[in-house]
Design a protein that fits this description.
The chain is of the alpha+beta class. It contains 6 helices and 9 strands. Helix 1 packs across helix 3.
Length: 181
């Protein structure tokens, strides 16, 4: 599969596994899992056929590991980033001392006032390293990397979870726990 097709399939999956499964008649279970055969049938019925091989390639090759199959390979879900109600069943996990968040300069005034909020997602996404945060921030312009005092937040009672692909999730990050690095 060429890169362009890989991106198109990945974006299609994001739309329907994270945001709008009902748009193609797909039903996710409470943990966000969809039956692979139902997904492939629904995609084809709505004019975007995906082969099982293509689906496997996107899950395996996606640089951010956005999607995962269950142990049986019969179900698939997005690893995080949902705007619809799902419970990924991720346990509370002690975070590292610091985590990072990539953004762009135009959002800084709001971030300094309100902190980081999940916006249309269930949680704020944080990166374990500066390189990943830089890639995230670059999507919207010249990146600004924020350092999050994750240990301080945990000590103050904030709960962290880590998704299957290594993205750290927290309900919000108050401005007092943020610095620019």
């Amino acid at each position: 599969m060429n890169e362009r097709r890989m991106v198109r399939v990945s974006k299609y999956l994001a739309r329907h596994l994270r945001h709008q499964p009902e748009r193609i008649g797909l039903t996710l279970d409470p943990a966000g899992w969809a039956d692979v055969d139902e997904l492939l049938t629904a995609a084809a019925a709505h004019g975007f056929p995906i082969t099982r091989d293509e689906l496997g390639q996107v899950v395996a090759a996606n640089d951010k590991k956005r999607y995962a199959f269950d142990e049986s390979g019969k179900r698939i879900r997005a690893s995080q980033g949902h705007s619809i109600p799902v419970d990924l069943g991720l346990p509370v996990t002690p975070p590292p001392e610091v985590l990072y968040h990539g953004t762009v300069g135009r959002f800084l005034p709001m971030i300094w006032r309100e902190g980081l909020k999940p916006m249309d997602r269930h949680a704020v996404h944080l990166s374990p390293d500066r390189e990943t945060a830089t890639r995230v921030g670059t999507r919207r312009g010249k990146p600004v990397i924020l350092t999050v005092d994750a240990a301080g937040m945990a000590a103050a009672g904030h709960e962290f979870r880590v998704s299957a692909n290594g993205v750290w999730l927290v309900d919000a990050v108050p401005p007092g726990f943020l610095t620019i690095t």
